[in-house]
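Q: I'm writing up a methods section and want to include an example of the input and output format. Could you take the sequence below and give the corresponding predicted structure tokens, formatted cleanly so I can copy it straight into the document?
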Amino acid sequence: MRRFQKKLHILGMMLIITIGMLTGCGKHAGAGENGKEKDADKDVELNIMLWDQDYDESVFKAFEKKTGIHVNINYIDNTDTIISKLIQGTADYDLLDLESAYIKSFVDNDLLVELNHSNIENEKYIREEYYKGYTGDEEMKYAIPMTAPIYTCIIYNKETCPIEITKFEDLANPALKNQVCMVNSTISLFGMALQSLGYKADSTNEDEISEAAELLTKIKSNVKAFVGESAIPNLENGECSVAYCWDYMNLCNMSKDNWDKYEVADIPGGAECCIQYLAIPSSSKHVKETEELINFLLEPEQYAVSTNAFGTEPVLKEECLAEYVESGFYENPAIQKNAELYEDSWKIAIDDEQINILDSYYTKLMSGSE
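A: Here is the clean output for your methods example:
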């Protein structure tokens, strides 16, 4: 969801060459319990790739203290980074923080290890509605959900937005000139445009995609900025009164003043739904230890550390987590809004066919070429 995509079968071929010739790298989360850089009993280091602000570093330090297993963190800012790092072969990665839209491609290209769920007993705390696969891993063999759904939707400032927004096409209204901020994700942009036109977000029909591109081109004339990570700065500094982004939960967590200031537009076509998953790449030499880390991250007390730090809606059951999160956390209106969006959302599993088509349209959209 978050970013531009590449063909993953290339990655599959490159990994055959690079697996077995990899060395550790990355940001070290801390020393072991004995304070030494290496633990004589474990002598294991896990190299992991995470999105920034998905997990608080103190959790990994706690894991190191408990187990003596060292964790090297590599932060990424888009899914292309995961692909390029795996292709480069500069590290033998053990854990990936993957968006739901990409799971199918990674599974189809034999890039993930089938998990031993008996080693991840804390998955019992995951909310029932989220513990099911819909991304090409329907039986949940290869990945574990670690966040509740994030929704790419239209957020508007109720005080400054000059028009009523009832559909995605309203973002092309001239009254919004230079007031719109949008994510730069190929799938998020074209998927929503397709949905709003009455098509499927995963369409491979070029006539439909071309129509979606025309709509996005009209909207682009009003776009002040395309963003990769967050549209919150653009909203909060008053630069934009409308954003098509995935920031509503975080926006509400930043300040209770935002609860009444911002709203999510109710539009036909729904919102894009994305869940973050943890998965083990086939190149990992420490599968059991990585499963131990996943299990540790799902402990309610540990999970709450990141929830409190970043305010993302948890994937764990409320009754298991409530005593560990900050007081009033579940009063956040975004939690109720997210429940509503879940019922009217669309999900997508990326494949090469669609990406091959979308790549050229995305390039033309961003470059302004015909």
